[in-house]
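Q: I have 172 residues here and want to know how they pack in 3D. Can you give me a structure?
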Amino acid sequence: MTQHGAGEQLVVLAAAGATSITCFSGVTIPVLLRTECYAKALTRALGFAPAPELRQDGVPPRCVFFIHEYALQTVVGGNRLMEDQVLHLLFHAPSIRVVPASAGGAAAVGLDYALIQYEHEPPLVYLANWTLASDAATVERAVHIFQRMHAVALDNERSRDVLMKYVAVYDR
């Protein structure tokens, strides 16, 4: 079980029953891929009271996680915790795409952003301001943003190489 703040709870609840999820995290590790220790350390660092725990039943198989390199560079809870978190990404993310710092403004989406799709319901877009939206304009914008992310992010294999580099950095 992982502790989440109010915004993160929205993502976990919205992800339940999703057939696919595409998300971008610019500053922190994506909610659905956080270890319990990382989530608790982040909550403490931000000065939030722990939120009620929500059970995550794993990540749907059709997920793409775009993580900005800044999120990998932002130390939460110390090097050992970060090493464990990055190893968790390597072994638990079905598809991970690192957006390199060199992408510059092309990756200036902001904070977290997610497109959550269901089999029999309209898609939802999660915005970092703790909002879930399903209107056509917001969904279209999310699709456009993720098309741009596909263009600037490293592929899955090269992203995993970058993650291994960060494992080595945090293993010192």
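Q: Anything worth noting?
A: The radius of gyration is 15 Å. The longest helix spans residues 136-152.
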